[in-house]
Amino acid sequence: MLTLLGAQITEEKGGRRAHELDELLLRTGQGDRDAFARLYSLTRGAVYALALSMLQDAHEAQDIAQDAFVRVWESAPGYRTQGSPMAWLLTIARNLARSRLRQRGRQTTLDEEVWNAIPADTSDITPEDRAVLQQSLARLGAEERQVILLHAVTGLKHREIALLLEQPLSTVLSKYHRGLNKLKALMKGERER
Q1: If you ran DSSP here, which 8-state letter would residue 125 be given?
Q2: In 3D, which of 9, 32, 1 has the Cα closest to residue 153?
Q3: Helix or strand or coil: residue 105?
């Protein structure tokens, strides 16, 4: 089974990642450019995925992701260890994306190729599995895909995703499980061919 789906993310791995992100943010706040570069490397996919899920435009999502990291650099001196460092980063991206949505006053449809590219830079899976996953993700509903990718790419817990998306936990869990079941069925069908 693909580890990208998030169902196999262990608490230990998530805890180590959160601790590392926390340390990187604290060092970034002290002006450590190497720590900021590592932070960017570890979180850019998640920040981009969130911006893309909200804006549904690849170019605007890239702009927001870049702006989010500028804001992270500027805000890091005030960062304090509390809660989830990934949630802190994604809240910055979410607020910037919301601001952009208010400015443009509309949403556009998302090109499926853009969604397909999100897991492309994940090195944990083989090219064959990645192709199957991308094809399957493209066939999910937009909200299911958003919740699954936020969980898989960012490692956030469902409770954190619910807070981030401002949806009830039960709604997020329902979308996640429904989408995951669809993904499993789609991927199983692809492998049997």
Answers
A1: S
A2: 9
A3: coil
Looking up residue 188, the CATH number of its domain turns out to be 1.10.1740.10
User: Rounded to the nearest 5°, which phi and psi values hold at 125?
Assistant: -125, 155
Give me the pLDDT at residue 125, please.
60
pLDDT, tens digit (0-9, with 9 covering 90-100), for 141-189: 878 887 887 777 667 778 878 877 778 989 989 999 998 888 888 777 6
**Mean pLDDT taken over the chain:** 77
Domain span at residue 116? 3-192
The count of domains in the chain is 1
As a whole number of angstroms, the distance between CA 172 and CA 159 comes to 8
Provide the 8-state DSSP code for 124.
T
Note the helical H segments in the chain: 11-29, 33-55, 58-75, 85-104, 112-117, 127-138, 142-154, 158-165, 169-192
Question: Mean pLDDT across the stretch 111-124?
Answer: 51
pTM higher than the cut 0.70:
no
